[in-house]
C-alpha cells in the first residue's frame, strides 16, 4: 500500500491543473502563490482523485492532513490550518545559539534606526504595497527618474505605525543576489512591453504559463490593466501626471533586480539607496499607493 504525496512550489492554479492531468498522485501540498486554503480541493482525473491544498506563507499556518486509507485508496480525510503564534513558542535552545553566533558580527549594523514610520509598511498586494511604494519613491528621487520599477516580491516583515525602520528591515525587503539599481532610457513602447510581459505571467488563462504571483510595482506612472484581455492588450492609458506616455518618446526609468531584461549594471545595491533615502527623510509618512485602474473585474472576490 502506497500513498503518493507531492510537495509542490508551483502555485495553487498550476497544482490544480497538474492534478487534473497527471494520474497517480493522491495529495498535493503546495506553495508559491501564498494561498491559505482552508479546505482541500478534490480534483478528478483519469484514474481517480487528488487532494490539493496550499497552506499560506511566511510560517503563518501549519497544515495538518490526516488520511484514512482503505484497500490502497484514501477513503476519508481531515484537514485543518493551525495558526502559528511564533511569540508563544519556546525557541529551540541549540538553534537560538546558532542564530546568535551567525548574527553577532552584523547585529550592531543591522539595528541602526534609519527612520520612524507613521505608515503601515507592508508587502502583500498583487499590484503594490506600501513598502514597495517606499522603494519606488526612493528610486525616483535618488535617480531623478520619471518612472520607477520594482519587482513584485512579497516577502519581508510588516512594520506598524510608530515603529522604527532599521537597516535589518530594509534588508528583509531587499536582500537578493541581484540587487543592483539601474537607470535606463526607455520609450513608451518598451515600457508597455515590460508591463504586458509581467502581466501575462500573472493573468495568462493557462496556469502553466503563469510564472509569478505579482505585478511589477510602478512609480511615477498611472495605467490601466484589464486582466481578462489577451496578451498585449491588458495595459493601457499610461500617463505621467495628466500627460499620456507616448510610444516613441524616451523616458528615464529607475529600477532594480533586473526588471529591465538584458540590462547589466554595476549601480549601487538597492538597500544602500533605500537606507540613505530613509536617513535623509527621517520620517515615513503615509502615501497613496500607485495601483492601476482595473477593468473588467467587477465582482471578483479577490479584490480588497
| SSE ordering | EHEEEEEHHEHEEHEHEEEEEHEE
Please mark out the parts with pLDDT under 50 across 5 or more consecutive residues, or reply none: none
Distance between the termini: 45 Å
Strand content: 25-35%
Overall geometric form: globular
Name some characteristics of this structure.
28% strand, 4-stranded mixed β-sheet, 7 helices, 17 strands, globular, alpha/beta, 304 residues
Structure description:
The protein is of the alpha/beta class and 304 residues long. The protein contains seven helices and 17 strands. The strands form five sheets. A four-stranded mixed sheet has the order 1-2-4-3, covered by helices on one side. α1 links the parallel β1 (5-8) and β2. α4 (130-143) crosses α7 (270-281) and α5 (167-174) runs antiparallel to α7 (270-281).
Give a summary of the structure in a few sentences.
With about 300 residues, this protein is α/β, with parallel strands linked by helices. The protein has helices spanning about 10-20, 95-105, 105-110, 130-145, 165-175, 190-205, 270-280, and strands at about 5-10, 25-30, 40-45, 50-55, 60-70, 75-85, 115, 145-150, 165, 180-185, 215-220, 220-225, 235-240, 245, 250-255, 285, 295.
Outline the secondary-structure elements.
Elements (H helix, E strand, L loop, with lengths): L4 E4 L3 H10 L5 E4 L10 E5 L2 E7 L6 E10 L2 E11 L9 H11 L3 H4 L2 E5 L12 H14 L3 E4 L13 E3 H8 L6 E7 H16 L13 E3 L2 E4 L9 E6 L2 E2 L5 E7 L13 H12 L1 E2 L8 E2 L10
Parallel strand pairs: 1-2, 2-4, 7-16, 8-15, 12-17
Antiparallel strand pairs: 3-4, 5-6, 7-9, 8-11, 10-15, 12-13, 13-14
Amino acid at each position: 500500500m502506497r500513498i503518493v504525496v507531492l510537495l509542490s512550489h508551483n502555485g495553487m492554479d498550476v497544482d490544480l491543473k497538474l492534478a487534473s492531468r497527471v494520474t497517480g498522485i493522491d495529495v498535493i501540498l503546495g506553495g508559491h502563490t501564498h494561498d491559505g486554503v482552508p479546505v482541500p480541493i478534490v480534483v478528478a482525473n483519469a484514474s481517480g482523485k487528488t487532494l490539493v491544498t496550499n497552506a499560506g506563507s511566511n510560517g503563518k499556518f501549519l497544515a495538518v492532513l490526516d488520511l484514512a486509507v482503505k484497500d490502497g485508496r484514501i477513503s476519508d480525510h481531515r484537514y485543518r490550518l493551525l495558526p502559528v503564534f511564533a511569540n508563544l513558542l519556546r525557541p529551540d535552545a541549540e538553534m537560538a545559539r546558532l542564530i546568535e553566533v551567525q548574527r553577532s558580527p552584523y547585529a550592531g549594523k543591522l539595528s541602526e534606526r534609519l527612520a520612524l514610520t507613521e505608515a503601515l509598511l507592508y508587502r502583500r498586494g498583487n499590484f503594490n504595497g506600501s513598502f514597495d511604494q517606499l522603494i519606488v519613491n526612493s528610486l525616483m528621487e535618488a535617480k531623478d527618474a520619471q518612472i520607477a520599477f520594482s519587482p513584485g516580491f512579497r516577502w519581508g516583515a510588516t512594520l506598524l505605525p510608530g515603529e522604527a525602520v532599521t537597516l535589518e528591515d530594509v534588508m528583509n525587503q531587499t536582500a537578493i543576489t541581484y540587487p543592483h539599481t539601474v537607470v535606463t532610457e526607455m520609450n513608451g513602447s518598451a515600457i508597455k512591453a515590460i508591463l504586458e510581459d509581467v502581466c501575462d505571467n500573472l493573468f495568462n488563462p493557462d496556469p502553466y504559463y503563469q510564472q509569478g504571483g505579482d505585478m511589477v510595482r510602478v512609480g511615477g506612472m498611472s495605467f490601466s490593466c484589464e486582466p481578462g484581455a489577451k496578451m498585449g492588450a491588458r495595459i493601457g492609458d499610461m500617463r505621467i501626471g495628466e500627460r499620456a506616455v507616448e510610444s516613441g518618446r524616451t523616458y528615464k526609468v529607475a529600477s532594480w533586480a533586473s526588471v529591465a531584461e538584458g540590462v547589466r549594471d554595476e549601480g549601487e545595491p538597492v538597500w544602500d539607496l533605500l537606507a540613505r533615502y530613509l536617513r535623509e527623510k527621517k520620517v515615513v509618512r503615509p502615501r497613496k499607493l500607485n495601483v492601476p485602474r482595473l477593468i473588467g473585474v467587477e465582482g471578483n472576490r479577490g479584490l480588497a
